[in-house]
Amino acid sequence: MPRKEHHVVKNTEKGRWDVKREHAQRVSAHAETKAEAISKAREISKNQETELVIHNKDGKISNSDSHGKDPCPPKDKR
Q1: Residue 61 near residue 55, CB atoms below 8 Å
Q2: C-alpha 32: how far from its chain's center?
Q3: Interatomic CA distance for residues 27 and 30, integer angstroms
């Protein structure tokens, strides 16, 4: 079963940070700073029990956090 994800990504066209659900056509939230986007994304991710994936300006993943039923929990959490 594929996991549900929200991503924090840099919107290079508009110069801001966006929160977007994977495979969604529309953005869930906009923010002027990465920190603000992460805060909004964390709240959305907790409410919808999704994986939060945070990207750097270059698009590479910098961090992730699980707020749902993690299909692969860390060994110490099983």
Answers
A1: yes
A2: 16
A3: 7
- 44's CB contacts (< 8 A; 6+ apart) are 6, 19, 28, 29, 50
d(CA 69, CA 17): 26
pTM of the predicted model as reported, rounded to 2 decimal places: 0.82
Cβ distance 34 to 52 under 8 Å? no
β pairing state of 61-66 and 16-21: unpaired
Bridge partners, 55 (sequence order) = 61
Decide if 27 contacts 8 (C-beta within 8 A): no
Give me 11's structure tokens: 């919107």
pLDDT value for 41? 97
d(CA 72, CA 51): 11
